[in-house]
Amino acid sequence: MARLSLLFLSLLGGAAAQLQYTSTASSAVAAARATALTLSPTSNVVGKTFDRFVQIFLENQDYSAAIANSNLAYLATQGISLTQYYGVTHPSQPNYVGAAGATRNGITTNDFSRLATSVKSVVDLLEAKGISWGVYQEDMPYSGFEGNYKNQATGADDYVRKHNPLMSYDSVTSDVNRLAKCKNFTMFNRDLANNKLPQWMFITPNMTNSGHDSSLAAAATWSNNWITPLLANPNFNINRTLVILTFDEGTTTGTNRVYAVLLGSAIPTAKKGTTNSTTYNHYSLVKTVEVNWSLGNLGTNDISANAFF
Ligand SMILES: *[C@@H]1O[C@H](CO)[C@@H](O)[C@H](O)[C@H]1NC(C)=O
Ligand SMILES: *[C@@H]1O[C@H](CO)[C@@H](O)[C@H](O)[C@H]1NC(C)=O
Ligand SMILES: *[C@@H]1O[C@H](CO)[C@@H](O)[C@H](O)[C@H]1NC(C)=O
Ligand SMILES: *[C@H]1O[C@@H](CO)[C@H](O)[C@@H](O)[C@@H]1NC(C)=O
Ligand SMILES: CC(=O)N[C@H]1CO[C@H](CO)[C@@H](O)[C@@H]1O
């Protein structure tokens, strides 16, 4: 009996942990901001082709429109342009979930979704090899927040859970040490300044800067203004850093072919400004890190996906 109620209590505790940080009431946000765990572990596991991997996702543009934009065309000259890169589905959320698990895991909508604790993601593979990781989401109110957050002054959608690749995984949200690595841009700037950025990063700008609620021009301007100084910053673009800037999906009328450019110090000078027409998609993100660090696989679409190198 005692054992049964203990079990019941620990199950309840698990379920609560997975939703503990969803309230958007200002008092709850202030309390969690003051107490939520934030972690910035680092590591230096040497990979085959790169030692740091940074993924940056923008929102909802076809390849043809994006490559015609002067800021995105400029960034393409600074790296390798992947001219046959595809989103995996519509709408947004399963593209992000797929970037972390190499499968949509049955998610077909932007609705609040939860995947069973047994569902693995790339984080399980990275941790098994001691490779540090972190997710940086602009305007998330504090590390580990699990809900959606509006701009407190204007009421506009700002940070959204559907654009966070890991929040749907209970294997992340049930673990406070993992939640503590899902951070905002305040923490990105702090980790950058302290030279505490991890080896694997996933970065989502807010609903304005991603282009979701603004325009391609706004997202492209943000991208160039944000990424170009980072490429000149030794705390970011350390030896053999690989950055991919891409879009979660194209417009629903297109083929889901999206802009994707590889940047950073991992790109040999001779390859800058070149194109590569191998077929890739978001499952290639997981495959590429698996190949680079000999991580094994998740047994999902990572098996058949092409790696970037
Ligand atoms: C970002 O997260 C940190 C850590 O939880 C928190 O202290 C800070 O207030 C947050 N920044 C913003 C702008 O919400
Ligand atoms: C997104 O961030 C920018 C600053 O980078 C800010 O100007 C803008 O208001 C933010 N968007 C929302 C919806 O709060
Ligand atoms: C940078 O990477 C190259 C191999 O790509 C290696 O030879 C060199 O030692 C590295 N330098 C540092 C400072 O890690
Ligand atoms: C893209 O092209 C294929 C086929 O030639 C190569 O095998 C890859 O190494 C190459 N990848 C990059 C990033 O250029
Ligand atoms: C070829 C190569 O550099 N392989 C390395 C990839 O990453 C693992 C860590 O998981 C190293 O042990 C390998 O040496």
TrEMBL record:
Task: Give GO terms: molecular function aspect only.
Answer: hydrolase activity, acting on ester bonds
Tell me the Pfam families matching this sequence.
Phosphoesterase
Entry keywords, A to Z? Hydrolase, Signal
Domain of life here? Eukaryota
Leader sequence segment? 1-17
State the organism of origin: Apodospora peruviana
Q: Which PANTHER family match?
A: ACID PHOSPHATASE PHOA (AFU_ORTHOLOGUE AFUA_1G03570), NON-SPECIFIC PHOSPHOLIPASE C4-RELATED
Q: What name does the UniProt record give this protein?
A: Phosphoesterase family-domain-containing protein
The record's section on Gene3D superfamilies has:
Alkaline Phosphatase, subunit A
Q: Name one GO biological process term.
A: phospholipid catabolic process
